[in-house]
Amino acid sequence: MAHGKESKVLKKNEYGFVEDPRYKECEKEAWYGIILGVVSLVIWAVAGYGLGSGPVEEYSYIMGFPAWFFISCIANSIFAIGATIYIVKNKMRDMPLDPMTKEEAEAYVQNGGETR
Amino acid sequence: MNTVQWSTLLPIVCYFAIMYLIGFYALELVNKASLLKGGSGAAFMEEYMTGGRRTGGFVLAMTLVATYLSAGSFIGGPGTAYTHGLAWVFLAMSQIPTGYYTLMVLGKKFAIVSRKTGANSISDFLRARYESNAVLIIASVSIIFFLIAAMAAQLIGASRLLQGSTGLEYKTALIFFAITVVVHTAVGGFRGVVFNDTLQGIVMTVSTSALFIAIVMQGGGIAKIVQDMKAINPGMISPYGVREGFMTVPWVSSFWVLVGFAIIGLPAVAQRAMSYKDSKSLHSGIIYGTIVSLVLLMGMHLAGAFGVTQVAGIKSGDLVIPTLITNLFNPVVAGIILAGPLAAVMSTVDSQLLVVVAAIVNDLLVNYIKPELKANFKKLRSITIVTCCIVGAIVVGLAFDPPELMVWLNLFATAGQLSTFLWPTILGLYWKDANAPGAIAGMVTGIGTYLYFHYFLARPLAMHPIVPSLALSLVAFIVVAKMTKKPSEKVIRLFWEL
Predict the structure, then answer these.
(1) What are the pLDDT digits (tens) for B230-285?
(2) B105 to chain A, minimum CA–CA distance in Å?
(3) Which residues in chain A have their CB less than 8 angstroms from residue B103's CB?
(4) What ipTM was assigned to the predicted interfaces of this complex?
(5) Of the N and C termini of chain B, which has fewer Cβ atoms inside 10 Å?
(6) pTM for the complete prediction?
(7) What DSSP line would sit under B284-299, residue for residue?
C-alpha cells in the first residue's frame, strides 16, 4: 500500500507514509463529544448552582420541580438528547471500518473525506 | 422477613431461566461462527470476546448502558438520594454524557484501529500499541484485582436485594444469583452477554418507568411530592443536600470526572466501542444510548428521592429500592419490577467477568505461556469456560464472607481502573509520541497518587481524589514520554498508516 506509485490524492505525513484518511474525520467527531460534554457540564453548573444557591423559600418552580433542578438536570438531559441527534444526523459521517486499500482510500477522500 | 415470598420469587426465577436459554443459544452461534472462520482458537477468541464485531446500534446502546449502570445506579445511588434528596439526583446527573461520550471520543478510530491490530480487548490494544510486557502486566493485574473486587461488591448488593425482598437466606440468594450470571457468561461469551444485556436493558427501562410512575401517582404528583420533601427538610430540595459541608461544589463537580468523562477508562465499557458492526450502528447506538441512560438515571434516582415522602424511616440505603417496590406493588408485580435492579447488576457483572477472563486466558495464557493454543479451538474453548467458572467461584467466595481487603479493594475498584487505563487508551489512540515508559509512569502515578490522596487527604483541594490523581497521571505520562525514545516506526505505521 505505502510502496505503490505516489498518489495525488493521499499525502504523506511527517514520518513519510500515507496516513489513514479516515482519522481526520474521526478526530473531528471526538471533539464533538468533548465539546458536548463540556456544554452539558456548564449548563449543569450554571443552572444548578446559579439558581439553587439562594434561600429555599425563594425558589421558583417549573412543572413542580425547583427551577434549578428542572433546568440543570431535566432540561439539560433533553438538550443532550437533542444535541446528540443533531450531531449524529448532520455532523458524523458514515465510513467503512475495515482496513482500506489505496484505491478505496482515494475514493473515500474524493467523496469528500476532507470536507463536510 | 423470615418466610420466603414465593409469589415474588417466582417471576424472578422465570426471568433467570431465560438468561440460561440465551446463554446456550449464543454458545451455538459462537461455535458455528468460529467453525465458519476455520475453527482456529484465534477465530474462537474473536467470536467469544467481541461477538465477531457484529453488534448493531440498538444492541450496542443497550449493552453499553447496561454494562455501565450497575448496583450503584439502581440500588446504592437511589438509596443515597432517599437521604439527601434532589442534591444527590443532581450529583448523579453528572452522568449525562454516559450514552454519547465513550462512543464519540473513542469513536470510529478505536474501531478501525482494533480491526487493524486484531485487538479483542483493551489489553490487546495496549499490547499492540506499547509493545511492553510491563504495561501489559500492570494492566492485567489491575483488571484481575479491581474487577474481581467490583464484581463481589455487585453480587453482595444483588443478594441483599433478593434477601430483602423475597426473604431468601443471604447465602442462598447469592449462590442462586451468581450461578445464573456465571453460567450464562461462561457458555455464551460476548454474544451471550450482549443478548442478555439487551434484554436486561429493556427490563431495566420498563421496571424504572413503572416504579417512577407508581411513586409519582401514589405521592399525588410531582409538585406535591417536592413540597412534602421540603417540609421534611428544606435541604432535600437544594443542591447542597441535608448535611452541612458534605455536598460541596468542588466535590460534587468532581463526579463529572469520576463517573462522567473518565469512564472511557473502564475496560468493560471501552470494549463495547470495539464491537460494533459499522458506522451506522455506532450512530444509532449513540442516540439510543443517550436516551436510555438518561431515562434510567433520572427515573431511578428520582424514585429514590421521592420515596422518602411515602415510606419513611428506611435505615439502610441498600434497602430503599426493595422496600419501596414491595410496598408499592402486589407481590407478583413486585417480582417483575425487582428484575430491573437485578438486571442492572447482572449485566454489569457478566461484562466484567468476560474482561477478567480475557485478561487471564487471552493476555496472559495465550500470549506468554501457551501460544500454541491459538490453533486449537476446542481446547481454548474449554479453558476459557473453565476459567470463567473459577473466577466466578472466587468472586462468590469473596461475597460469601467479605474480607476486610475486599471492602478496601472495592472502594478503589472504579478509580483503580480509571487510573490504569484512561490515559494509556486515549493517548495511545490519538498521540503518536505516547510510548511505554510514559504509559507506565502514568499508570504508576495515577494509582500511587490516588492511594496517597485517599488515605492522607480525604478531599485534596476540596475535590474527590480521582481528579488530582488523573491530572498528575496525565502530566507524568506526557513528561516521561517526551523525555524517552519515541515508539518504534513499526507501531506508528501499524496504527496510523493506510
Answers:
(1) 999 999 999 999 998 899 999 999 999 999 999 999 998 998 899 899 999 999 99
(2) 4
(3) 33
(4) 0.90
(5) N
(6) 0.91
(7) HHHHHHHHHHHHHHHH
